[in-house]
## 1
Amino acid sequence: MMDHEEAVRRTATERYLLGELTEEECSAFEAHFFDCPECARDVRAASVFLEGAATAPGLHPAPAWREALGRLRRALTDAPAAWRLRPLPAAAFAVLFSIAGYGGYQALVVVPRLRLELARAEAPQTVPWQFLSVSRSERPVVSLPADSHRLGLTLSRSSPREYPFYRCEVLDANGRLLESAVIPAPPSGDELHLLLPARRLQPGRTVVVLAGRETKDAAEPEVELARYELLLVR
Amino acid sequence: MERQVFDAAYLDRLRSGDPETEKQFVAYFRHLILAKARVRLRCAISAEDVCQETLLRVFRAVRATGGIRSPEGLGAFVNSVCTNVLHEFLRTRDRFGPPPPEDPGRQPADSGPTAEERILSDERCRQVHQVIAGLSQRDQRLLRALFLEDHERDELCAAFGVGRDYLRVLVHRAKGEFRSRFLEAEAAAPESVRSGAAAPRGV
């Protein structure tokens, strides 16, 4: 068991609360503070704070704010650069609107939260990736773990002609449009790599429709080049 | 709160179901059990369940024939019961998955606080809120991020733009200020407010 001097010298309470102790140290400190009045006070103060702070006015976001923050969080964490253009403005608008309403709350919660979400989004992470080809054979089964934020797809070259831009649409089994974006062509000869936000993908048959475009202009006609199918399993 | 001396007389009072002794016992150990359960489970609701179950088992053990005989070992005994409850809870969770999200509007019929407990709890909350309001904005933010939002340490470092060592210093400073203010406020409060806890249901 840890003695009091060691607990103080090692700032055990802080390390305990921060999750910095090993399993063995954790057990040793627990055995100590259940028996040491001084350390018990320290731990108890933190626990009382938790209980009281949970209902403290101003420390928690109102439901509308929480919802707006959730939308921004999802947009930041789920959307890769090429696909972020569409969902982000709506979420950002909602958040900015909420910031205006909640004023000083921004400094307390928003900034640290956004920094955290950005740090998460920018952190290295593994992404399930699938190569898709236009084939009449059985569609590939792609397993998407529940905690995956993105799905990577490489689309095989489907047309001898190259376009400066491509429209990619993702449809679910019922033909419902899940995502749509115009993206610039990859370097000549390369296959097209897509990073899709996983949150909107549904288990079952999923279709990616690729169309060639001369410009990004929405009014410009486009030529459907290929349909890629996959069976998504979550 | 001054530590109660856990001697034979105290254990006898606890065994005989003396209400004041039970209240003091719960007030002393409840927050230690909650802290341990929160650290281990990272879930406030589950921590409360573990706390209730632990206290219930401890009271039963104390009252059982041939139950705990060594008053000086009471703290260690509570800790070991809490460890067992936590292990059982984690095993159940692994086997059956996490419990469904709770309906905040639903309250079990027999688990709500009594009117007296609610008044004491409200008073205690006001006391804590005053202490929190007296902290600097930075300390409030840090403590909230650490305790209420369950962020990983590295996330906190990124959010506050500090290194791990500095984070520990900040936590130490903020917690120290909270603790001293809280103990001051608590010492000035009437005894009924200071205890602020009742024995678990079913005892």
Note: Chain A touches chain B through 46 residues (CB under 8 Å).
## 2
Amino acid sequence: MPATLPISTENVTSAVVAMLTTVTGKPFGDGDAPPEPPDVYGIVDVIPGGGRYGDAVNPHTDIELVIQITAVGTTRRQAAWLRDRADQALLRKTAAGYVNAIDAYDLNGVTKSLATEASLQIVDRWWDSSGGIDREDIVHNAHERYVLWVSPIS
Amino acid sequence: MAPDLTLARATALSVMDATCTVRTDPQGRTDDLFDETTGEYTRPPDDQTTVYTGPCLLRPSQGLGQNRATMGSAEQFVDRYDLRLPVTATGVHPGDVATIDTSPNDPDMVGREFTVLQAAGGTYAVTRILTVQLRTEGPHV
């Protein structure tokens, strides 16, 4: 069995962006502000950290991906509002599992447009740390960091 | 003997071919209503007061597009203009917002909102000179 390619983190962040946009009702951008940003929006960034795990044949089957979610608002309250909703969207869990699925696709020989179903699963997600809320010119930014444990669906 | 400014002021007024409205909102966001469902603010009734409406003259005061601000990963152009009003226009303060209502010689200016940074006058002022700032969305790269 040939070794698999590393998981594309771009696909994971795209999936997180799509989920957060749908669940919070506010646009999120992947590493940048969404086009024509409104008063309230979010940004998902991959930040340093995490790791790759696997066996001798497939040394990077699974990854731990560290992301930062930045909630942007015109006031501190507005930024905190989106921060809290994004946090709930990402981590809310029932006995059946996470409430909001993150459907990600990998690129192991399959282009994204050809993928018909999720081929990666977010096995677990957890809060890592908070960067607090800071002011930048006329907006406020709330930063929260999370870890996603991503694995191919076997 | 004090100079007679009547002619100078009338001449300045004659070239103010645009009209604008200046509104003030001293409370800013602090008295706006925050909707916990949508995360948006709603202005209460009579949130803004009109402090001036009438003729004005707008012109760029710096090289446009040279000043940029980045916030929340979004980039904006921040351009300064001079907005001249008749010297009889009083009560305009920094933070007020000027909106261009009509502009026959440059229709693209209509509807643009400028934040007042400074309102200058003087004993022998011919016009009220407002330094105003316009923010527009910058390049999305």
Note: The beta strands of chain A are 28-30, 41-46, 51-53, 62-73, 93-94, 97-98, 120-136, 139-152.
## 3
Amino acid sequence: MNRNKYILILILLLTSLGVFSQSGKDKVESLLIGFITKQVNLSPDEAQKFWPLYNEYLDKLSSSRREFKKQFSKFESEENLSEKDAEAYITAEINLKQRESELFKEYYEKFKKVIPSKKVVRLRKAEDDFKRELLKQLKGG
Amino acid sequence: MRQVVSVFFLKLSLLILAGSGNTYAQSADSSNKSQAKIPKHYFKSNVFLDGYGFGSRKIRQTDAVSERLKEYGWSQSMLGFYFPFKTIDFKSKNEYKKNLHLLFSGSFLNAKPVFSGIAQHQLIRSSLGVRAVYSDGNKVVLYYDVHPFVAQDVSSKTTTVFRWSSSIIYSYSFNETFTMRMGVTRTFLWGDRYHLPYVGLRIGRLDRNYFSIQFPRNITYSFKMGQKCRGTIFMAPRGSVFTMANNDSIYAGIDQSFIFGRSEFNSGFRLDVRLKKGFLLYLANGFVTRKEIRFSSYQNNQNNLKILTPFYSNPNLAGSIFINVGLNYQFGKARKIYNNKNIYEAIDLNSHDGLDGSSNGNAQIPVEEISEKKHLLQVQDISDLIELQDLD
């Protein structure tokens, strides 16, 4: 009886397997991390110090973007956009880009304490290459 | 009054869980110039459901109690949780990120032993505990937990007894692929109260394939099966100590209830499947061997601080097949932990339920992404990453 109950629960759960997958953004992040790991070639000690910092940097980056999106989610369609709203949107976007660049500046100071600047350049290049790779894939190349 | 205690534990757990919503911090490090809010904790909150059981087998031992019991089988379901309530980051001169994580944890277990010769009993165990995990950001993780619990037989009037289990474990990673652990554990997993040394070693990375011996908990070989699944071959003890009503007069003394200790050894295969949105489903199946049940009198063991002296024990129960199904749900925002091996270690230490032996499958450790199938991505997934100049 009890075994039948477990089997029934199992069947119900297995039927829901169709929904399994990481969300797209998590997958991109995992791919990015995998790509950087291969390209930057950190020593074990550098990796122990660098990855917590880089995770923190990514956390702050996505938090800034999330806040921006949250603030302007109501303007998905430009039809409801007044001139004043449009101005606020552009100002916020400029602020976001500025924040992102300040964030990198702040973290560059931290990164160079744990890895040589040469590897920070390799990191930036890996980030760029990753974007290009993704674009290439999306274009079907 | 006695049943109220369990309900109180359950309500308190739910109340604490409901209050764990605020997961953002302004910034862990007050010196940070940017004002972005990042999550407070590294650990996600976790709720899990676990079902475990094995079929009835005839008891072959020949004595009065065995003949009364006739058959022995087991089924149990458990609802458990843990969530972080405090994370402290420490400044370090050597650039490693040291932190302390404090978590609440709790579980409610409902078990039905199947003795075909006596009335059906419903045994419950409620626990509410605290865990502390310190990671030095490099090689060391220190883990401590304490889980007070109360076990009762809700099918009849029983004595309520408080017990507690606890572990303190020191983990040292020599390198990415070799970790050793040492400590002490007060555990009921082996069907009685034992104070045992904890000795563990792991060869291999937690996000890849690894072989692990964690005495007295388990021996496992765990391997990745694609991006969504993980398979584990394991051997592990499973057991606990319950309170059982003496309404079948199993015990000839005056006790209203007695201590029911059970333990068995599971050997089998477990499949973990990561579902969408923080859900993880697992299924384990295999053989149950070295089954043992022990009944001990409260009266006769009142001042006994060592192993309980049973009035009935049966270490020769026939083996059978077990099934274990569980669903984990991890929720709340947590800090990113990619490639942070020290935090992976902390998560692994926290993944084991010290009371029952179940594990949450390390669902929070990111899967190492090796897939080249980037074309499965959607444009909106990467829109944040792409700048106009990238199109040149």
Note: Residues 26-34 of chain B have pLDDT under 50 and may be disordered.
